[in-house]
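I am still getting used to backbone structure tokens and would like to learn alongside you. To get us started, please write out a protein record for me. Once you have written the record down, we can walk along the chain together.
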Amino acid sequence: MAIHLTKESKVLVQGMTGGEGMKHTRRMLAAGTDVVGGVNPRKAGRTVDFDDRAVPVFGSVADGIRATGADVTVVFVPPAFARSAVVEAADAGIGLAVVITEGIPVHDSVAFTAYARRKGTRVIGPNCPGLITPGQSNAGIIPADITKPGPVGLVSKSGTLTYQLMYELRDTGFSTCVGIGGDPVVGTTHIDCLAAFQDDPDTDLVVLIGEIGGDAEERAAAYIREHVTKPVVAYIAGFTAPEGRTMGHAGAIVSGSSGTARAKKEALEAVGVRVGGTPTETARHVLAVLEAGR
């Protein structure tokens, strides 16, 4: 089992014929992902060779779905075209759109996440590393060779910290790792993933990675208190961020005490979540909780 992505997932890549799309399509294929096509209206009808697999290029997402039965798209298009790419995928009936693109204007993200929600399409991202179910499928840019299948579910705002926790717990392994993105507006939240991991029989524990800015982690804490019975371990990035200074990350907006790392830590600990002071300490908490449950 897993959440949102399995070995049965059939993946289209919007922007596959660009430099980043080509590079990461090759990596996804190497990880076992069933990439069934790319989308580029100017190159429809061609195929692209990736080592031992020729991947067809379709003129639209709808054409790709009709020909292959695709149910996932990974979006590598430039920021100016991301909104139309997600709207096209949602109109075609895709189930999951993983938006890797960064630098998308917030008003575009607001528009396409709301539109996709109305159409029944789950958006992960934007500005995210995607998601991976180790040993089954990888949709995005997460390295596939730093962990293995296992009982831990991971949901993270930060791409880099996603990779670090995967590596720290490489001998334990993960059910699914989801990088939701750190922009102010994202299509899938911590709460969405907590709910899915709660229902996944192969996830025994959830790691939640947050960071300063906004109130997503505080809202996740409230959800955990009411709905999550599995153990949750967390890490919050930004304890050393200087007060009163604008930070570079798009979602790292702090107002007074709201949005600080300390406020998030206190909210999570109040509902029984262990919060690590460093990624390594967080991994130690995970191992201790798993061992106590055996």
In short: The chain has a mean pLDDT of 93. The chain is about 35% helix and 25% strand.
